[in-house]
Amino acid sequence: MSRTRPMKRSRFHALASMSLLTALVAVVGCAAEPEEPEPAPASPAPPTPEESPSPTETETSEPASDAAVELEQYGVAAAHPDAVAAGIEILDAGGNAVDAAIATSFAISVVEPYASGIGGGGATLLSGPSVGPVGYDYREKVAVDGNIPDSGTGVPGMVHGMATLHDDHGSMAWDDLLEPAIELASDGFEVTELLAQRFRSDWGPASIEGLDHFHDGGEPLNAGDTLVQTELAATLTTLAQDGPEAFYTGSIADQLTQVDGLDAETLANYETEDAPPVSGEFGDYEFVSAGPPLPGAAVVQQLQIAEALGAGDAAPGSAAYIDRTSRAWETADQSVSDYFGDPDFVDVPTDQLTDPDANAALAEPAAAQSPVPEDGEREEITAGNTTHITVVDEDGLVVSMTNTLTSFWGGLESEYVGGFFLNDQLTRFDAIDTRANQPEPGRKSVSWSAPALVLDDQGRVVLGIGTPGGHTIPNILTSVMVPWALQDAPLQEAIDAPRHSLQNGVLALEGNPSPEVNELIDQRGWDVQVTTRADAVFGSVQALEVDYDNAAVIGARDTRRDADYEVVDVTDE
């Protein structure tokens, strides 16, 4: 939706001083001529570290262009209308994109308590005229004693991450940014059909058992009921009044240390990490995403191989399109298994994984591969978790933020403290049990969050994008990026395009396969999983496009969940 802001920008506008990172110049990529898929048994080996340069990190440098940008619109995209409203409220009051993203992140944790919150963590990228793409990692880590509790709970980083972003780039007072979330928790909000379903799905019933405010007459709340979270409002008020340190060394920390796996020393020493993003050419753009242990380099690899295979020449949802993007994903997914881990502990060859020539060379063997696991290894693709926020302010600062509890509600044995659920992030060491992803004190696990920015050939952000979806996130992003970047599809059309995901020989689709897709499935020996909106497999893309020629911000709504966006016209008085 779009409206006109009712007031002029106020005094809150100067960004804090910050390091300037290289803005990346895009190179036009060429899609290979499309060919009909030919089945063959071979599977290409990903590049070895010996063949690869050192890991990619965006080098500190002057930005490609520091020219001021004055847009005539600003906007927020998030997974719930009330969270969008919280971010817009901050932008209306004169805050910048970072201020709005922080306010939105706390608000979404109130209205989407199953997906993210102060008991979890996340990652954020931001870029604008005065700062090149920079990244922050505030995900959970293993405690100093190396203990991984049965719940999988790691030291939560969200509060520290928001505080670090605020210190580095914020302009408004910290307590003002928490006020919208406090009001949503204390006054309540209307339960949506999706939230009512999550109360009743997978780990929802066990997670909310014994929590009266999630029930009415002993039954979970229904759509249209009002959810009031008094204890959460009190915790957020403590954070607003006492500052973020209350979470790590104050009264909230006292509650957290009662939870197995959390201890006072690890909490007190938690630090948000500077996490230089990775990037690679895709079409006429540079795709920038989160560095290891997050899978941004694998998303770049998937996009580049898909482009080289000619995915841009195939209609979304067609057999050729599914085949080419799935083959690209098989290679990228194998790269994650082979190489990805916490970069403080292992080297990840991201330079090689994001090199367009190297990935073009992999495209031909990728076209021949068709690994099919044994029948006993096949499992249905499950609901994808997390939440994403994208914000653009009138000065062209763009924030792409993905926050998560990891599994919905923090998993089967979720912990509940102070009105919020704790994460089960450390279960990802078992779920992604590879040589490079093994637990030890202070270590972060490989996971699937991939906040992203897309740059034009002047180094300007033209798209902020991200999605929930767990292991499906790379395929969701690819399903939007191929039509948007290679086929010039409008953003809404690209987000509405059909999605698919291949995992362990199971192809998940959003509808019944066409005859040509059925033929491909038979040829490849895949199983089919037809999903519904209730299955929550294919995420909810939150994206905002920046049109510099018209000084405009373009949004799109993903109807697969409760997603929304708002774009506001800038006016002067």
Give an overview in words:
The chain has 573 residues and is α+β, with helices and mostly antiparallel strands. The chain has one domain. It is 31% helix and 17% strand. It has 18 helices and 23 strands. The strands form six sheets. It has an eight-stranded mixed beta sheet with strand order 1-23-2-12-13-3-4-9. The protein has a six-stranded antiparallel beta sheet with strand order 10-11-16-17-21-22, covered by helices on one side. A three-stranded mixed beta sheet has the order 18-19-20. The chain is globular, with a radius of gyration of 22 Å. The model is unreliable at 4-64 (pLDDT under 50). Residues 39-52 have a biased composition (Pro residues). This is Gamma-glutamyltranspeptidase/glutathione hydrolase. Keywords: Acyltransferase, Hydrolase, Signal, Transferase, Zymogen. InterPro entries: GGT_bact (IPR051792), GGT_lsub (IPR043138), GGT_ssub_C (IPR043137), Ntn_hydrolases_N (IPR029055). Residues 32-66 are annotated as: Disordered.
Structural class: alpha+beta
End-to-end gap: 23 Å
Count of individual helical segments: 18
Principal-axes geometry comes out as: globular
Query: Can you tell me the number of structural domains?
Result: 1
What's the pLDDT, averaged over the residues?
A: 88
Biased composition (Pro residues): 39-52
Family: Belongs to the gamma-glutamyltransferase family.
Organism: Enteractinococcus fodinae
Keywords: Acyltransferase, Hydrolase, Signal, Transferase, Zymogen
Summarize the helices and strands and which ones pair or pack.
Elements: E1 2-4, E2 73-78, H1 81-92, H2 97-111, E3 121-128, E4 131-137, H3 158-169, H4 174-187, E5 189-190, H5 193-200, H6 204-208, E6 215-216, E7 219-220, E8 226-227, H7 230-242, H8 245-248, H9 251-256, H10 264-268, E9 273-274, E10 278-282, E11 285-289, H11 296-308, H12 319-339, H13 350-353, H14 356-368, E12 387-392, E13 398-404, E14 416-417, E15 420-421, H15 428-431, E16 452-455, E17 461-466, H16 473-486, H17 491-496, E18 500-503, E19 506-509, H18 515-524, E20 527-530, E21 542-547, E22 552-555, E23 564-569
Parallel strand pairs: 1-23, 19-20
Antiparallel strand pairs: 2-12, 2-23, 3-4, 3-13, 4-9, 5-8, 6-7, 10-11, 11-16, 12-13, 14-15, 16-17, 17-21, 18-19, 21-22
Helix pairs in contact: 1-2, 1-4, 2-3, 2-4, 4-7, 11-12, 11-14, 11-16, 12-14, 12-18
Protein name: Gamma-glutamyltranspeptidase/glutathione hydrolase
Biased composition (Low complexity): 53-65
Keywords: Acyltransferase, Hydrolase, Signal, Transferase, Zymogen
